[in-house]
Amino acid sequence: MSLAFDEYGRPFIVIREQEKKGRLRGLQAHKANIVAAKSVARLMRSSLGPKGMDKMMQSPDGDILITNDGATILDQMEVDNQIAKLLVELSRSQDHEIGDGTTGVVVLAGALLEQAEKLLDMGIHPLRVAEGYEMACRVAHANLEKIADSFDFSQKDLEPLIRTCMTTLSSKIVGRCKREQAEMCVKAVLAVADLERKDVNLDLIKVDGKVGGKLEDTQLVYGIVLDKDFSHPQMPKELKDVKIAILTCPFEPPKPKTKHKVDIDTVEKFENLRATEQKYFVDMVQKCKDSGATLIICQWGFDDEANHLLMQQGLPAVRWVGGVEIELLAMATGARIVPRFEELSPDKLGTAESVKELVFGTTRDRMLVVEGTAVSKAVTIFVRGGNKMILEEAKRSIHDALCVARNLVRDNRIVYGGGAAEISCAVAVGDAADQQPGVEQYAMRAFSDALEQIPLALAENSGLAPIESLSEVKAMQISKKCSHLGIDCNQAGTNDMKEQNVFETLVGKQQQLLLATQVTKMILKIDDVISPADYD
Question: What is the mean pLDDT of residues 395-405?
Answer without folding.
Answer: 86
